[in-house]
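Saturday, quiet lab. Running sequence design on the structure tokens for the scaffold JK sent over.
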């Protein structure tokens, strides 16, 4: 391999790394925005639920089913937020403790904050990028 081929190979490798990093940054930003939107919706749902409870208290009427429905919506949205936070941790090459939510190094066995044993990491195999030398 002559010097030009080595330089071209290095440029190609660096370009792929830069493209991957920029893709990761865009994806991280999208997930962060989705989390922020969901957290705002969650705050609104909690306020609506509080209003229903207070109105029922104040008037002596109200349907407990309405409060129960709001609580189910809150629970579903909370689960969605946790899922997105886990996705964000994976994008950052970290893993989140299922007990306290702390982000830990991908290789950690126990949570750095609460000491809980962390679940096994699912290994994802990334697809080869176009132009990968293995493809040729």
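Result came back. Writing it out in full:
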């Amino acid at each position: 391999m002559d010097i030009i081929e080595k330089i071209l190979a290095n440029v190609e490798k660096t370009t792929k790394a830069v493209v991957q990093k920029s893709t990761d940054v865009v994806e991280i930003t999208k997930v962060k925005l989705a989390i922020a939107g969901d957290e705002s919706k969650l705050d609104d749902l909690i306020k609506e639920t509080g209003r229903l409870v207070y109105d029922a208290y104040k008037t002596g009427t109200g349907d407990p089913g309405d409060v129960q429905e709001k609580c189910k919506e809150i629970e579903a949205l909370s689960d969605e937020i946790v899922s997105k936070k886990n996705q964000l941790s994976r994008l950052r090459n970290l893993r989140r403790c299922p007990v306290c939510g702390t982000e830990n190094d991908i290789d950690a066995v126990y949570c750095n904050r609460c000491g809980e044993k962390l679940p096994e990491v699912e290994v994802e195999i990334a697809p080869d990028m176009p132009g990968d030398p293995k493809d040729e």
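Notes for JK: The mean pLDDT is 89. Residues 97-127 form one domain. Ask whether to fix the surface positions before the next round.
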